Amino acid sequence: MLDAGYDAPRIAHLLAGLPVQILGRLRSDRVMRRSAPSRQDFQSANPRWRPPAQAWRRVRLR
Q1: Most-buried pick from 37, 51, 58, 60 (CB within 10 A)?
Q2: Dihedral sign, CA of 30, 31, 34, 36?
Q3: What's the half-sphere exposure (Cβ side, CA atoms, 13 Å) at 57?
Q4: Residue 29: enclosing H or E segment and its boundaries?
């Protein structure tokens, strides 16, 4: 059991292989992010997606 001052998601990740359960209170401003999907997974989930035209345009700097 952890209070908001501890990093409960990190501790749960580190103890993932052990037979323990983590109960923690998170701060209200905590943001959870997932890891980015691989390019193949993203393209299979979004078959019609193409990068914006601006990504392909060349920019000449002087």
Answers
A1: 37
A2: negative
A3: 6
A4: none
Residue closest to 24 by CA, chosen among 36, 14, 38, 34: 14
Helix extents (H) in the chain: 8-14, 39-45
> What pTM did the predictor assign?
0.40
Q: Is 11 within 8 Å of 22 (Cβ atoms)?
A: yes
Cα separation, 18 vs 13, whole angstroms: 10
Q: 47 φ, ψ to 5°?
A: -65, -25
Shortest CA distance to 25 belongs to which of 45, 9, 13, 41? 9
Q: Quick one: pLDDT at residue 57?
A: 65
